[in-house]
Batch of 2 targets.
Target 1
Amino acid sequence: MSVLTINNLNLNFGSTTVLKNLHLAVNQNEIICLLGASGCGKTTLLKAIAGLLPIEQGDIHLAGQCLKSKAVEERKIGLIFQDYALFPHLTVADNIQFGLSKLPKDQQKTITEKMLSVVHLQGFENRFPHELSGGQQQRVAIARALACQPELLLLDEPFSNIDSQTRYTMIQEIKQILKSQNVPAIFVTHSKEEAFAFADKIAVMDQGKIVQFGKPNELYHSPVNPFVADFLGGTNYLNCNVTEDKVLCSPIGEFRLFPEMEVQKGRYRWLLRPEQIILKPNELGLGTVVGKLFLGLYYRYQVEIKGIEIVTYQSQELKIGEQVEVGFQVREFILF
């Protein structure tokens, strides 16, 4: 059963519509990512759920209750900002206890100790925010939000201030914390890598709409349109024809489609992922390396074959101008 449901949500800034007919459902203990470019409406949606922006049309229900008329403080929602919004003059313990002022002191202490244990910061209770690393500050912000026992957690660009060397370690740690507390969460990012690593499901947004919603691997392998395909990874598009007997005819060769594919005869654009392309040095090969970038674990190559330029990633080092044999390891055909 869904903890959060959003139906037909619309929101305008003056004459500009920023959210259009949005529908979304979040289940218990599920982590949802709102993924999209700047200005697509993802942070606006987060603020509307939190109550920081008015709902003009449609409705939002949390744990069966309509939020439309509820003030921010009446919604059992934890909100973690991009800069964590910790109080610099308060200790870690006092930051965590900030939303617990109505509870008896001994209960505040018990909850604080539990939260410190949950986020692995025992012994840090008397430190101040400036004495913590970015990752530790983030965990304090999460502990403060979880201390109030929210029914939903909202995170705005939670990993943008974490350096690249520790980002994936933090993603794994925060995901484990949220799962251990059985709290559903929605987070905003423009990074597909963060979305893939952190989310159970992804809502790709564009111009105020959710273009596609589903599990990360489903979206990657079955994008509904070129926009989603491009946003989720590097792509090559080849014009092709599909015959009645399901043979794909392209400038780089002919390929028999899988029998279970329901594809009509006609013209298509074939999405060929970089990882589906295999290069092998061969003086008689039909491909020529025309571009090369070293990216650490692998190289990004541009290869020209039969007048078509394609992009691929390979761990082997090749030279500009080198002739290569181009092979294909296609596990699915994505046609638009």
Target 2
Amino acid sequence: MTSSDMSFSVPKRFAFRRIISVVAFAFLVLFALLETVPFVLTVANSFKCLPAVQDYPQSFIPVPPFGVECRTESGASRPAEETSGPLTFNPALEGYERVAEFNLPTWFKNSIIYAVAITVLRVMFDSLAGYALARIKFPGNRLVFFIILGTMMIPGVVLLIPRFIILKQLGMLGTYQGVIFSLAADAFGVFLMKQFFESIPEEIEEAAMVDGASRLTMFFRIVLPMATPALTALTIFSFQGTWNNYMDVLIIIGGQADLWNLPLGLAQLRGQFGQTLEWNIFLAGSVITTLPLAVLFFIFQRYFVEGISYTGLKG
């Protein structure tokens, strides 16, 4: 091959790679947009009147007038054609106004109590257990770790009955404590923290031990501050899982509406309207439930991604 042939082949090779990169980028952008469609339609339909949700669920572009009334002076529902079309709709607040008529503030408060308390306890217990398994070489260390991993393979629904029986014997059914203490630690959090702690060089702790630091001092003053990415990921996972927890709260709390969280409270809306589910009200409640999690993720997404990367490190 002559030098002139090589001069032509190199630009062609770079041009081909560039085309592949552009196509791949366009595919990823398209995939990302498709992933946002359900959330966008959920938010859009929460601001529609019920007939518009039923006849034009695909419309997502809000146009004036805003805050339209969903009912006529006689109390009848406005036809879908008056407030919506194939692509555009006039935003209404009926869904959010109707949701506010329920015990939403109490459910919201309970969700915060459960999520914050359980997240704090999980971060504390999971990090302590993960550090012990990563650094303290006691007899049966690996066996304990494999048992913890084994619990991750057991479907959560299998543990509901044993948990219910234990809480009943302890007199914790129908209480905040029953929900919080039964979910105060989880196997995934222990696994995540163990993987992260094993990525920290042991020489750092050995230097601290030479200076006379105890194991707890090293953990709280040296190791734990270095584990910010994993702690943040664990915090987001725990908060998200607890915030969306429906089954555990249902089993432990039962019919005590003053202790329900948002998912359990919103699920009861399906039984409030007879055979017809008023989708604009249900979707408005779903948006209210999802919003705190979305804000939390966007604020800490960098730490979230960094923390997840450590789950694949050496075990």
